[in-house]
Specification:
It contains three helices and eleven strands; from the N terminus they run αββββββααβββββ. With 177 residues, it is α+β, with helices and mostly antiparallel strands.
């Protein structure tokens, strides 16, 4: 599965290696680091896919960066976004996207709400969309995602989306200093 994701990432990057204006890295705003995994369940015509990496998330929903690296620290990719620019920077080149949603769809094959992560990783719903709290008080539903905060005290945040198919699960373990 990891090879599949690596091939998918490489092929989408090579296809978009044209010269692209790259937004400068973000300074200020929120900063989160840790490990993340994304699992996309098997569909009728596609095999299950999974991806994991160390991550560094900086800035905020309107302008930020999401860096992904190997466990040994080698850069896999960095997404940079501002109001009119979303760029994926990799060692193989750069690729521009219309939105963060378009970037995650292209690279992961599914939409993942990166903009909401800045709030979800602080244990609260994103103010950009309606949410419904869980009856247990240990999470909420937002943007079609079930956000699990039952292990938030240990830095773990989970999010799962059941519909539309295929189901997607994101697990994040924050580094605590």
């Amino acid at each position: 599965m990891t090879r599949f994701f690596a091939c998918l990432l490489a092929s989408s990057l090579v296809a978009g290696c044209a010269s692209v204006e790259i937004p400068a890295p973000i300074t200020g705003g929120e900063t989160f680091a840790g490990r993340l995994s994304v699992q996309v369940a098997e569909g009728d015509t596609t095999p299950a896919r999974s991806f994991s990496a160390a991550f560094d998330l900086r800035g905020g929903p309107a302008a930020g960066t999401l860096g992904l690296s190997t466990p040994l620290g080698s850069m896999l990719a960095e997404a940079r976004w501002r109001a009119a620019s979303v760029v994926l920077v990799t060692p193989q080149g750069n690729r521009q996207f219309a939105s963060l949603d378009a970037l995650t769809r292209s690279v992961l094959g599914e939409s993942v709400p990166v903009e909401a992560w800045f709030d979800w990783l602080q244990g609260r719903p994103w103010p950009g969309a309606a949410s419904v709290p869980h009856a247990t008080g240990r999470g909420f539903e937002q943007l079609g995602w079930n956000v699990d905060l039952s292990r938030f005290a240990t830095g773990a945040v989970g999010a799962s989306r059941r519909a539309p198919d295929p189901p997607v699960v994101v697990r994040i373990q924050l580094d605590r200093s």
